[in-house]
C-alpha cells in the first residue's frame, strides 16, 4: 500500500484525479467557517448538491477564501449533483428539461469558480429510462466544457450496467464498516469507477461510535473512533467525505496520516458488517436496491 497523505488522490478510469479526503455537506450559518477550517486543514475536495440547497454558499465561501488563503482554483475539486424530481414516473423529464435544471448549477459556480470538477446524477429514480435521459443530459453538460467530469450516486451494479455510455468516473454511495457494500465496491473499482463514500462516520450514532471493537482499535492507535473509521475508508481506496460544523472536528477528521490500521485492525472492522441493517441511510439503501 502506498503511503497515504492529505494530498493523496484517487484516479478514475478516465484519468481524473480526485483528492481522496473530501469535505461533505454542512448546512446553516456555520458553513463559511467550516469551509475555512477545511481549507486550512488541507481538504481540497468539496461536496455539494442541488438537493442540499447550499451550492451558492459553497461557491461564495470558496470564491472568497481561495484568494485570501492563496490557494489556486486548480487545487480545488468541486462536486455537485443533479437531483431528479420526485415523484415522477418513467421516462421522467426530457433530456432538455434535465439540462435546463443542471444549468442552475452552472449559474452558481461558473461566474466566480469557472467550472465544476464533477457532476453526478444524485438519485437513480424513476428507472432505467429516466436514468438514461438524465445521463445524456449530464454528458451534454460535460460537452459544454464547464463540467470537467461526470458520475453517478446511489447506483447498483445492475443500474450501472443499464446506463448508456460513457462509463461514469465516480459512484458516490454509502460505505462504512457496518455497511461496506463489498460487491458493489469491488465491481466499481475493477472498472476504474472511483468510490466516494457518504456517511463514513455513521452519522456519529452513539451505539456505533461506542462499539467495543472500534474503541479498542482507536485506543491502540491513540486516535478517536471517527479517525479510525475514516482511515478504514482510505485504506480501502475509497474517498470519504466527512462533514462537521466544528472547526476542531474538521481538523481532527483530517488528522489521519500519522497511523496505519494493520491487517488485524482491518479484519476486526470488516467483521462489523451488518448488511442492509448496517445502513445509516435507509432511503439510499432502498434506492440502490430499486428498479
TrEMBL record:
A Pfam family cross-referenced in the UniProt record is Aldo_ket_red
In what residue span(s) does the NADP-dependent oxidoreductase domain sit?
35-273
Keyword DNA-binding assigned: no
Q: Which residues bind substrate?
A: 122
| Annotated active site | 52
Q: Which UniProt keywords apply?
A: Oxidoreductase
Q: Which superkingdom, per the lineage? A: Eukaryota
One GO MF annotation is: oxidoreductase activity, acting on the CH-OH group of donors, NAD or NADP as acceptor
Which residues are tagged with the site Lowers pKa of active site Tyr?
81
Looking up PANTHER family in the UniProt record yields: 2,5-DIKETO-D-GLUCONIC ACID REDUCTASE, ALDO_KETO REDUCTASE FAMILY PROTEIN
Protein name per Swiss-Prot or TrEMBL: Oxidoreductase
The organism encoding this protein is: Dioszegia hungarica
Amino acid at each position: 500500500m502506498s503511503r497515504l497523505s492529505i494530498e493523496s488522490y484517487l484516479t478514475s478510469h478516465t484519468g481524473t484525479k480526485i483528492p481522496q479526503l473530501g469535505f461533505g455537506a454542512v448546512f446553516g450559518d456555520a458553513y463559511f467557517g467550516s469551509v475555512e477550517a477545511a481549507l486550512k486543514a488541507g481538504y481540497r475536495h468539496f461536496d455539494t448538491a442541488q438537493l442540499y440547497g447550499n451550492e451558492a454558499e459553497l461557491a461564495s465561501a470558496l470564491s472568497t477564501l481561495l484568494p485570501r488563503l492563496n490557494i489556486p482554483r486548480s487545487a480545488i475539486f468541486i462536486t455537485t449533483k443533479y437531483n431528479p424530481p420526485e415523484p415522477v414516473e418513467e421516462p421522467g423529464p426530457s433530456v432538455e428539461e434535465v439540462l435546463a435544471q443542471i444549468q442552475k448549477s452552472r449559474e452558481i459556480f461558473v461566474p466566480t469558480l469557472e467550472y465544476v470538477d464533477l457532476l453526478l446524477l444524485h438519485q437513480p429514480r424513476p428507472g432505467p429510462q429516466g436514468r438514461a435521459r438524465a445521463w445524456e443530459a449530464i454528458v451534454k453538460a460535460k460537452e459544454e466544457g464547464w463540467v470537467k467530469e461526470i458520475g453517478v450516486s446511489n447506483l447498483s451494479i445492475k443500474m450501472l450496467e443499464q446506463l448508456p455510455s460513457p462509463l461514469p468516473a465516480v459512484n458516490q454511495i454509502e460505505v462504512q464498516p457496518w455497511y461496506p457494500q463489498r460487491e458493489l465496491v469491488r465491481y466499481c473499482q475493477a472498472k476504474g469507477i472511483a468510490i466516494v463514500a457518504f456517511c463514513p462516520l455513521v452519522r456519529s450514532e452513539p451505539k456505533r461510535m461506542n462499539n467495543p471493537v472500534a474503541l479498542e482499535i482507536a485506543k491502540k492507535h491513540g486516535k478517536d473512533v471517527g479517525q479510525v473509521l475514516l482511515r478504514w475508508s482510505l485504506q480501502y481506496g475509497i474517498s470519504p467525505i466527512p462533514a462537521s460544523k466544528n472547526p476542531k472536528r474538521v481538523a481532527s477528521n483530517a488528522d489521519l496520516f500519522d497511523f496505519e490500521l494493520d491487517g488485524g485492525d482491518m479484519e476486526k472492522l470488516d467483521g462489523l458488517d451488518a448488511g442492509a441493517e448496517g445502513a445509516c441511510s435507509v432511503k439510499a439503501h432502498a434506492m440502490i436496491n430499486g428498479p
